[in-house]
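Worked problem 6 (solution included).
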Amino acid sequence: MIGQPGEFDSTRRAQRLLAVDGLRGILAFTVLVHHATAPIGAYWLFPVANVCVFIFFALSGYVLTRGWNGRFGTFLLRRFVRLWPVYAACLGAGYLIAGKQPIWSEFFWYPIHYPSDPANLHGVDPPSWSLTVEAWAMLFMPLIVWIVSGTFRKLVIGFAVFALAVQAYPAMSVGIFFLGGAALHRWEFQNRILEASVPQWLGKISYSLYLSHWLVLTLLWRWFGPWTAALIGLPSALALGYFVWRWIEKPSISASRRVDGFPRFQWILGWHRPARITPLPSSDNRDVAPR
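Solution. The predicted structure is:
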């Protein structure tokens, strides 16, 4: 992978970060393979899948910082329109499959879940824990951008403050990944393998695939057992991921791009103007998220 640092200019505004899209697709597929094969004893992917999720956080910080334009209210509304429909649909389907009474606050990313939370092991859609973290991290985007758009000294101080906060509240440790990804926002990454057609297709459906694959695997485990589920789980999950992308995520992406109704909150953190980061379109069309 090649990285090139530098300031953004108008000639780069239309540039898509194809390697980042492809990487996100590979990460989501790796998580899928782990969940499909773990019930038959293939636990070796467990640490790899965990690393994939934390890289997702870093990619979100990276992409969202590159697209930041200082319009905090519009940013939050766009993220809600972009992320919530798929999240709510998969969470609702998970409750139906599990036959449980919905916890309605979870549809609005509360309470926040973490990988060590026992509730994740018995949840209706365990991968959704990372979306609760992602959603609440959005509230700190002005602070994250402020830290990484200044001097190196400010960046060091920002990491130090984050490290101290983690000591007081260990659950904030995932914020280090957002901040680390955001710190790389001046770099552009290229990789021919990740820019190939298959990783790009996986990247396109990665958010939908990440949130929906547990649902189809749950049904396959129930109907056929772990071995058959492991064999047919991958193509079935990819098919469902594409379906969710086509009929839920794609319309939500289009809707989020039409959101433009809030003023610039330049008073946040004492700003008089937005951070000097040229917005790039990639912040609206990809996420975490397993963007």
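Discussion: Residues 2-285 form one domain.
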